[in-house]
Fold this protein.
Amino acid sequence: MLTVYKLASHVERDAAREAGVAIVKQIEFPMLSTLLCPLFQAADEEHLEADVHFGGADLTKCFELAEKILPKIDCARRTHLTCELVPGVVGPKMSASLEESILDPLDGGKALKNRLKKAFCEPGNVADNPPLAFTKAIIFPLLVGQPFLIPRAEKHGGEISIPDAATAEKSFAEEQLHPGDLKLGVESFFNDYLEPVRAEFALEDAQKMFLAAFPPPEKKGKAAKSQKKPPAKS
């Protein structure tokens, strides 16, 4: 907390509010805790001894503030990298604070299928379409020029091959690409691409490291039955 207090002495209220504009709900009379959020982001960099801080594009203003104020308390200025934000499975963006919105890389099979089933994917709608956004921001860049293959059953017309993101968007806008097929393709790609990650994570050493970093909460024992005290003698 001392680092946060030191940083606070170099940041005006409006600067703190502006830095958190994309990550904190904006209201007319903000709580003090929301103004401190960007300062905690900066303090984390120092206490984690980070060289590089990677985050979504919504953290850009926080990163800019950190670069400005950390040197003022004799802390190193860190390198910052940002990535494009993708919409959540539900909700405006994928966020760890809303579990239903994320696609966990370790989820496979039925878990991944169930998450994608919840994704909004209206026929012809390319403006608000999480599965289509996943193809543009994640899948096609990873394919590096290779086509996006959708393993549709022969009885439904057979495999679909889409060469690029623009074709995928055009096909969906014209309702030539069905929402069910698009979700199937996204599910198939993520399962194939992430299988080595899941296999590595299942190894004993990886499990030990994970449990050391994120120990499970202790199970609470059964609450002791309350016993009535005998009435006090007069």
Notes: Confidence is low (pLDDT under 50) at residues 223-227. The longest strand covers residues 52-56.
